[in-house]
Amino acid sequence: MSLQTQVEAALGRRVARMAPLHGGDLSDVARVELEGGGQVVAKTGPMVDCEARMLRTMQEAGAPVPEVLYAEQGLILLDYLEETPPGPENWRALGAALAQLHEAEGESYGWAEDYAFGPVEIRNGFQDTWPAFWADHRLRPFLDAAPREIAARLDTLCARLPKLLPDRPRPALLHGDIWTGNALFSGDTAYLIDPASYYGDGEVDLAMLHLFGQPPAEFAKGYGALRDGHERRQPIYQLFPALVHLRLFGAGYHGLVTRLLDRAGV
After folding, report:
1. How many Å apart are CA 98 and CA 205, to the nearest integer?
2. Is 177 a catalytic residue?
3. Is 0.90 topped by the overall pTM?
4. What is the pLDDT of residues 149-187, one digit of tens each?
5. CB 227 within 8 A of CB 201
6. Among the listed residues 111, 225, 233, 238, the one whose alpha carbon sits nearest the alpha carbon of residue 166
7. Pairwise CA distance, residues 32 & 113, whole Å
8. Which domains does the chain have, with CATH numbers?
9. Neighbouring residues of 198: CB distance < 8 A, sequence distance ≥ 6
10. pLDDT in tens, 66-112
11. Catalytic-labelled residue, pool 177, 194, 201, 205
């Protein structure tokens, strides 16, 4: 069945035209114009129904996300949002959106489903302590695939995590993959898109957002104050997305991982 036929069956409306949108490793994305007016975003891929459940959980938490209009295995339809260039008010809105998301609290650390970034499996499941979750679900899965020197240093870091990370921080609802490409600025606000959610330390999202750039000061004004010691924890949290990039894109990210291990003190 073609995508057009699937969309028409899901919405009970005819499709006027479709055009591809930029996507990621997980899904193909298209803008769908409907006869009689209106637009939706169609995403297809093996994990999109999981993404829909994450978006709905985020929406229940009060965070701004595109509305999920339809979801089934392999296809989701989202409200279409027109992107506009970001200004200071958008960055404040993004900070406030993440703060609102992080107000939602889970019972422990993790998520009920595993996820993936393309071929990289993201193991979730739940752990009672945060250092154990970060070691077992975010760092140790890369030991076998990492270069030997990096693997040895990662293993050392994992052993030290109980002394470097808080044992039981509040398990906040995380976006899980927040960078500027996964923030959609529209009008005077900001929407969170393309999540890889789970419950954990809210500093994880902030570390990811600062990995490949520095958000303007307005972002921090929107988010609010951080806990003492967040600078020391930042490289430990940034290692996870850096290792994902090393696995996906190869040796060009070797230096980034090494620098983060240096900053983490191993």
Report:
1. 8
2. yes
3. yes
4. 999 999 999 999 999 999 999 999 999 999 999 999 999
5. no
6. 233
7. 29
8. 3-79 (3.30.200.20), 88-264 (3.90.1200.10)
9. 109, 110, 111, 124, 174, 176
10. 999 999 999 999 999 999 999 999 999 999 999 999 999 999 999 99
11. 177
